[in-house]
Amino acid sequence: MSLPSAAVTGGSVGSGARPTARPGAVLAVVCLGVVLATLDLFIVNIAFPAIGRSFGGAGLGPLSWVLNAYTIVFAALLVPAGRLADLVGRKAGFLVGVAVFTVSSGLCALADDVPQLVAARVLQAAGAALLTPASLGLLLAAFPPERRAGAVRIWGAMSGVAAAIGPVVGGVLVNLDWRWIFLVNVPVGVVALVLGVRVLPSVPRQPERLPDLVGALALALAVGALTLGLVRGEEWGWTSAQVLASLGGSVALFVGFVVRSARHPRPVLELDLLRVPSFAAASGAMLLFNVGFAAMLLSTVTWMQTVWGWSALRTGLAFAPGPLMVPPVAILAGRLAHRVGAGVLSVVGSLAAAAGAASWVVAVGVTPHYATAMLPGSLLVGVGVGLVMPTLTAAAATALPPHRFATGSAVVSMGRQLGTTLGVAVLVVLLGRPRTTADALAAYHRGWTFVAVACVAAAVAALALVRRPERTAA
Fold first, then answer.
1. pLDDT single digits (tens) 46-67
2. pTM score of the predicted model
3. What is the domain range of residue 35?
């Protein structure tokens, strides 16, 4: 997904763009779209117990597909959808993405069972995949080069804002009915559409070829097969034909995806980007960190509701202090990045998150002691997220020349979604089906240990940003 020439050179956004487009207004609208696309990731987690009760006691395994179907499709379609947005125009791509997301949110609220809800979530993901890269392209076209990095950092920090408000909003809405967590997207989507028509610049279309939709399908099937094998492993038996076929099929599809990416003129994953050391390190660290982040998010909210017996609202309020740390820490990280470097910030942030998860293994027990057992770790994780996510996004982008910026950012976002899928799938395996409170305690301690290990692995990957000088792609 290349940028228009004006976005690279810093001139006007092009002959087809609205010269009166205000950068601040464009930033507000595209950030509203990003919040729309990411908010449900945090609200859905807190609604899992209520959704399960509504659908006849569905367990964590089947319900995990409500999250994973979204993240798998989002990851697979992100780059192709970005190229489609270039073909039809970024403003049109953004508005169509918002419209699809808004309509599918209403379908989620009308679902009568888990399969219907998962199908609607797939449609939601398609809308999110279209609006997200289009929003970045619009942002880059609206801002001059000297202000672009700051705007992108704000754009990237919106996931932290969504994480901060999601649990509290979700807790309030779930107390009414879990279907409201999807219905709330409808008025937000309508506002984004109305404002988008008025303030977004009409960036000229780009002469892109059709994206590799077959490659996108192969990636989605590969991740889906891997997730299916992991989630159903205990039920089917780890050596059963079904599990072996799922895992073996996943490997074969991944190999086919990589081969196709190497040969296709417009691949889902541009392999040459991974030859840039700083970009590869930042992307790998982002994927690993999101493995731990996704497992942390789901495990903490389900623990508080299922073991401590807290309501959705109380759980949301208890979870909120950690995410509330993200925006101010992200702003501080932006100021420190030029002084200490992205590598140092990412390593420190990943280790802070690992320490937070490890503290739960030591301190959290069956009896609720929130202030001394859960809160300190939540604050550490919040600091870690604020240091890591916007920093790695910016580090990946600045490792590339301007004409590769948007494509590189899409690849990083794709890695985030894949990490989320893997984190949820592995957590489901580790939690299993505990029959007693003691079993549940041991299972969640395994889950939080896994979170800590994933975050340490992210810190190790981020060390490459400290050791190696940056080299840009041609």
1. 888 889 889 987 788 888 899 8
2. 0.84
3. 20-201
